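Q: Predict the bound structure with IPE.
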Amino acid sequence: MSGGPHHIAVVMDGNGRWATKRFLPRIAGHHQGVKSLRRCVKACADRDVKVLTVFAFSSENWNRPKDEVSGLMDLLALALSREVPDLLADGVRLCFVGDRNSLSVKVQAGLQEAERMTSANTRLTLNVCFNYGGRWDITQAAAQLAARGELITELSLDRAMAMAHVPDPDLMIRTGGEQRISNFLLWQAAYTELFFSDKLWPEFDEQALDEAITTYRQRERRFGKTSAQVDAATPGDSFVT
Ligand code: IPE
Ligand code: IPE
Ligand code: MG
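A: Predicted complex:
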């Protein structure tokens, strides 16, 4: 049994199926997904989770139909303008993680402004992974080190990653019934506990979150050690990675 989690990562999957089941266009599912994210942010803050990292658009999602991709870009801009005041009031710090270069200049400016406005908040850090891929992150980190002529070590690579501002996730939740990583936090999830939910992301509510957290607390995180070693350690030690 352990406390926490301090950092939860979520693959918010199942928006399209949620909409299709209701004979709605897929984009309606993504809109509902933003509402579900808003609920999840509040719930995490209430449960003392300090970092929430969500997968909103993957490097591979560009391969979707053009209208869905442009709908998701518009939704990002809309969600920014609608949600930032509320997030600000709730003490949430927003960070965008991913390759921004292929986003429109207007969206890039919106992301920067939202980050600037919320930068002093400390209750919860919300990392929104947009145009993100685990392989992209490892590659860009290695490229940075190479350009600076720095030695590649686990520590130097870790520090050059796009997620260097937060500790590794303790728990990764994937909704929508699929049991795969889909190029999410490949480096950072080395010792993350995984939880798969059959609920579609728009249906993932406080109760579902509590189920994931309860399951997490029942896991024994061994980090390569034996169970006996973990049992013998003082309680605080189990959080040291
Ligand atoms: C996840 O929901 C959100 C994004 C990938 C943007 P999906 O759109 O993948 O939903 P399903 O998997 O098709 O139901
Ligand atoms: C993963 O979902 C990406 C996001 C949730 C943003 P996908 O629906 O794109 O994953 P695959 O294609 O089923 O693996
Ligand atoms: Mg999907």
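A: Strands lie at 7-11, 51-58, 92-97, 124-132, 171-174, 193-196.
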